[in-house]
Task: inverse folding
């Protein structure tokens, strides 16, 4: 029995609800209130708040935090979520992380807590014009994604990127690792930690890709796919190590928020330089 499975057997954790049958039908959130909480917590704890204007749409926000002491070697970590409007656990996880304010001392952090505010307002995957923003990062038309990329090009490169998502079809948490240089992997540690609070999807195939122990390591060349998710843009232009973490949204919302919070904490704790 591998470690994730044995932890699952021991843990008294939530069961799949089986109520999301053709789309996500679970809890919704007031994204404007959640974002307002995020900004308030960020300001309280000394983060910089940058508004990213989006023409004819609600603004995006980037929250940045520098190390607690002067250093030229700070690890730069980027975390984003809320790109799919039917995935409420991501913004809630970011809010909890900001409110708890436990971050590595020697890291610079770059957070974007909601990339698709109109989608969250409508509880639908796409934005209010029907665009799946997580397919827009090569041939970009959506104003939210154009604004996000315009912000990204003015940022330094990142040592680690985390994109927080949910999947209403999955039997548990899973993670995509993009690690073309075979750097030390954080995936096993992330899965082992999340297994304490949320079931892991142990399927051998997830989203039509081979998976092992909740980890998908797609062997993809971004140039081979025309519809880039955010992670492909990040891998091509900003980072060499990216994790897309997926909470199972056919489970209770608190379980999914706990899964994403735990995944971020585990990745930060295991990252070599933090
Ligand atoms: Zn998603």
Result:
């Amino acid at each position: 029995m591998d470690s994730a499975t044995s932890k699952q057997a021991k843990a008294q954790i939530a069961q799949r609800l089986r109520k999301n049958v053709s789309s996500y039908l679970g809890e919704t959130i007031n994204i404007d209130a959640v974002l307002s909480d995020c900004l308030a917590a960020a300001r309280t704890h000394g983060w910089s708040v940058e508004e990213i204007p989006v023409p004819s749409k609600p603004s995006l926000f980037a929250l940045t935090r520098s190390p607690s002491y002067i250093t030229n070697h700070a690890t730069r970590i980027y975390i984003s979520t809320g790109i799919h409007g039917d995935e409420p656990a991501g913004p809630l996880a970011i809010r909890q992380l900001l409110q708890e304010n436990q971050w590595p001392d020697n890291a610079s952090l770059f957070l974007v807590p909601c990339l698709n505010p109109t989608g969250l307002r409508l509880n639908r995957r796409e934005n209010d014009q029907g665009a799946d923003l997580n397919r827009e990062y090569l041939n970009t038309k959506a104003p939210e994604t154009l604004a996000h990329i315009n912000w990204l090009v003015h940022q330094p490169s990142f040592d680690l990127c985390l994109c927080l998502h949910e999947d209403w079809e999955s039997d548990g948490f899973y993670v995509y690792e993009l690690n073309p240089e075979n750097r030390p992997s954080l995936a096993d540690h992330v899965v082992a930690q999340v297994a304490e609070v949320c079931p892991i999807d142990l399927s051998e195939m997830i989203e039509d890709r081979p998976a092992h122990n909740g980890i998908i390591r797609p062997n993809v060349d971004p140039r081979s796919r025309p519809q880039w998710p955010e992670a492909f843009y990040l891998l091509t232009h900003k980072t060499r190590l990216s994790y897309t973490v997926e909470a199972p949204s056919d489970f209770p919302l608190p379980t999914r928020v706990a899964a994403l919070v735990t995944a971020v904490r585990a990745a930060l704790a295991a990252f070599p330089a933090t």
Observations:
- Residues 84, 87, 165 surround zinc ion (CB under 6 Å).
